[in-house]
Write a structure and sequence with these properties.
three-stranded mixed sheet, about 400 residues, Aspartate Aminotransferase, domain 2, binds pyridoxal-5'-phosphate, globular, Aspartate Aminotransferase, domain 1, seven-stranded mixed sheet, 2 domains
């Protein structure tokens, strides 16, 4: 058999173990320990948790369009697996490019109405790769202070001059753009939609400033692709600036089937350069065929009809208006990320736990994930929630809110 684990001996190993145990204790002591609940069913609006807990109503996945367990998406994955195998055992430029990878890149570019696209193992990788490949010490990048961790890390890896502007603050962005005029190229980088607050970047204003100060605009559309805008193309479609945003990074791991993968889409020479220079692309394995199959089918479904995206918007509206009427404050606007603002960290934790006792899975967020005093429970709406699911969630919130003093 496998036997029991072997503990490494020697002073260094013992010291390391002590240091790690102390660090883990500190995390527990700070109250920021992250527990992982184990799901024993497919991802979807109704879950079964390991060790019991059937029929749990799920409001905390990024499964915005309900495609993660869509029968046609699963079937497409099975077919791709059978035809193209388990995986490529190679990076793209050695022997890891199949016809399905090229087809998916072409489909992504068409979906976003851009010239070309390049696939990565994740959007984290797409963000890690782009800034270093594109920007030199002669250039500048201007980044919203609340951008996703992967954008922050990607920017850290590049040698451009770095400016951080206050969250969605156009005055501050303008001041930083003025300061950055001395550099060869300016790139404004922002999340299209911010995942903690459910707020949407003011892209019209950002693009106007970019035009005024001769800058390029980059958006991370992980929480927008597939469902924001009349046809689900994203924040740029929603705000009417598809022709003004130069570069889009996004994920295949949320609304677009939820398997994994990310991409950059934009001008052809940029995509060509990324294939030559982007380190997470050059030095990491190709996306597995089944994963490619899922995303490709998800895009087909979205390009056939905008009904799924529209249905999600209607459900989001139902939840936001009923919760507001019940007396809760919901942050953001018109986005399926609906943060129920509670303020107190303990209140958010206790209420989330009590919601689960009532069969509703939601997650509380507190400092350091969000600012002190701004603890919240984040609810995420999906197109596959029924009106009854949403009403049940609102009723449970109302009961739990009254019980714990969040509502009068
Ligand atoms: N960017 C944003 C805004 C995200 O929310 C995420 C996902 O957590 C990522 C990037 C990373 O995407 P992926 O899961 O494909 O690595």
């Amino acid at each position: 058999g496998a036997g029991s684990p072997r503990a490494a001996s020697g002073t260094a190993a013992v010291q390391l173990r002590q240091r790690l145990e102390k660090e883990l204790e500190d995390i527990r002591g700070a109250g920021t320990w992250k527990n992982e609940r184990v799901i024993a069913s497919r991802q979807g609006p109704h879950l079964r948790l390991a060790g019991g807990g059937a029929g749990i109503l799920n409001f905390c996945a990024n499964n915005y369009l309900g495609l993660s367990s869509h029968p046609e998406v699963i079937q497409a994955a099975v077919e791709a697996l059978e035809k193209f195998g388990a995986g490529l055992s190679s990076v793209r430029f050695i022997c890891g490019t199949q016809s399905i990878h090229k087809d998916l890149e072409e489909k992504i570019a068409r979906f976003h109405q851009r010239e070309d696209a390049i696939l990565y193992a994740s959007c984290f990788d797409a963000n890690a790769g782009i800034f270093e490949a594109l920007l030199t010490p002669e250039d500048a990048v201007l980044s919203d202070e609340l951008n996703h961790a992967s954008i922050i890390d990607g920017i850290r890896l590049c040698k451009a001059n770095k400016y951080r502007y206050k969250h969605m603050d156009m005055q501050d962005l303008e001041a930083k753009l003025q300061e950055a005029q001395k550099h060869r190229l300016r790139l404004v980088a922002t999340d299209g939609a911010f995942s903690m607050d459910g707020d949407i970047a003011p892209l019209r204003e950002i693009c106007q400033l970019a035009q005024k100060y001769d800058a390029l605009v980059f958006i991370d559309e992980c929480h927008a692709t597939g469902f924001l805008g009349p046809n689900g193309r994203g924040t740029d479609e929603l705000l009417g600036v598809m022709d003004k945003v130069t570069i889009i990074n996004s994920t295949l791991g949320k609304a677009l089937g939820g398997a994994a993968g990310g991409y950059t889409t934009g001008p052809k020479p940029l995509i060509d350069l990324l294939r030559q220079r982007s380190r997470p692309y050059l030095f990491s394995n190709s996306l597995p065929p089944a994963v490619v199959g899922c995303a490709s089918k998800a895009l087909d479904l979205l390009m056939e009809s905008n009904a799924i995206a529209q249905s999600m918007a209607a459900k989001t509206q139902r939840f936001r208006s009923k919760m507001t009427a019940a007396g809760f404050t919901i942050s953001g606007k018109d986005h399926p990320i609906c943060p129920v603002m509670l303020g107190d960290a303990r209140l958010a934790a206790v209420m989330a736990e009590d919601m689960l006792n009532r069969g509703i899975y939601v997650i509380g967020f507190s400092y350091p994930v969000v600012p002190k005093g701004k603890a919240r429970i984040r609810v995420q709406i999906s197109a596959v929630h029924s009106d009854e699911d949403i009403d049940r969630c609102v009723e449970a919130f109302t009961e739990v809110g009254r019980k714990h003093g969040a509502l009068p």
